[in-house]
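Look over this record before class:
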Amino acid sequence: MTTAGDIMHRGAQWIPAHETLDRAAQVMRQLDVGALPISDENGRLCGILTDRDIVVRCVAMGHDPAKITASEMAQGTPRWVESDAGVDTVLTEMQGHQIRRLPVIENKRLVGMISEADLAAHLTEEQLAGWVESVYAKS
């Protein structure tokens, strides 16, 4: 059985909840990613910050990204899967919540992220088509 750990992109990093959005943007640029999981003071997932969040919900609203923290952008209940979860579980989680990136956790710690590119590289055409239809058609 193919697992989340098999298809995820390793090397994902947290951004602490207290970190400012300008620093988060610098980390995104350094890692060449468009999203960072947000960790609370206990190292637990409390949200995900995207480059779009920074632009649309901060900069475009006239806020200073040097004064807004990642925790202020965190919305809703963060979704994640364990590294040993099967691909069906990954797809169910992503489709059910219409999400495009999914943190992968092992022993309560971030070990990777699953993105659209990871799905495209590891799923069958049928699985990928189903995911695209469910995530983008309802958006």
User: Anything to note?
Assistant: Helices lie at 4-7, 21-31, 51-57, 70-73, 87-96, 116-122, 125-136. The domain at 4-136 is CATH 3.10.580.10 (CBS-domain). Residues 32 and 92 are 27 Å apart (CA to CA). The mean pLDDT is 92.
